[in-house]
Design brief:
WH-like_DNA-bd_sf; globular; Arc Repressor Mutant, subunit A; HTH_MarR-typ; 12% strand; 6 helices; alpha+beta; three-stranded antiparallel sheet
């Protein structure tokens, strides 16, 4: 039986994911966002209008779970919800300019933090790591948000 030479992927990625999430919390706090609020704003980037159900599916959330998040973001003027003219039972969700600005600022600050984390890696390794990670995320369906 061959000797195992590295930890399993999940054993490496789960602690890294937790550390990254913990590092993002203060950044999101400075921007007045919860993690779910940020995920919703990111989820609205690819298409300007989603139904609430389609948005929930795109971000991997239960549609009832995101309703209070949508309520908060709408109350703050970061998104708009309106009835779909084709089906009044369905709400369409649209990012406002203020929501787009907030999302861009939070994402910029988070990615700056990530750049500092990756800064000690040689440029070729860093580029390869990011490219392969994006490919794996796309292959598994978890690359829902633009980089």
């Amino acid at each position: 039986m061959p000797k195992v030479t590295r930890p399993d992927l999940a054993a490496m990625l789960v602690p890294l994911g937790r550390a990254l999430t913990d590092a993002e919390r203060p950044v999101l706090d400075r921007h007045g966002l919860t993690m779910w609020g940020y995920v919703v704003l990111l989820g609205l980037d690819e298409q300007p209008v989603h139904t609430q159900a389609a948005l929930a599916k795109a971000i991997g959330a239960d549609k009832t779970r995101i309703i209070p998040v949508l309520d908060d973001l709408q109350h703050r003027g970061l998104l708009e919800r309106e009835s779909d003219p084709a089906d009044r039972r369905v709400n369409l969700v649209r990012l406002t300019r203020a929501g787009a600005r907030l999302r861009a600022g939070a994402q910029r600050d988070i990615q700056e933090q990530e750049r500092r984390l990756l800064a000690d890696l040689p440029a070729a390794d860093r580029d390869t790591f990011l490219r392969v990670l994006q490919q794996l995320a796309e292959r598994t369906g978890s690359a829902r948000f633009p980089g």
